Amino acid sequence: MGSEYEERTIAYLQEYGVRIVERNFRNRFGEIDLIGYDGVYLVFFEVKYRNSDGSGSGEDAVNAKKRHNICKVSDYYRVLNGIGEFTPMRYDVIAIKGNQIHWIKNAFAYC
Fold this sequence. Notes:
Elements (H helix, E strand, L loop, with lengths): L2 H13 L3 E9 L2 E9 L2 E10 L13 H17 L8 E9 L2 E5 L7
Parallel strand pairs: 3-4
Antiparallel strand pairs: 1-2, 2-3, 4-5
């Protein structure tokens, strides 16, 4: 994700009270763009930018393989940071098209 879109996304989420704790967290399985807290929920955010519908929507870009990799990376993050299995979690997608930001909460379940 480009730093311009990352900054826009962070500012947008912070307007809604999200506290970002990590950016571009990665391991050998992949990367999670942003990690933060929305109230009591630990949220793993995948951010997708599209300048047009020509290459599909941002939501569509988060396919089954991508979701599986995000879940693996989130497991590693939780273990590394001592976050227990009873912590409420969510996987959200932020789809940016042009100047519009669409926040899809609970975009997919843990896989």
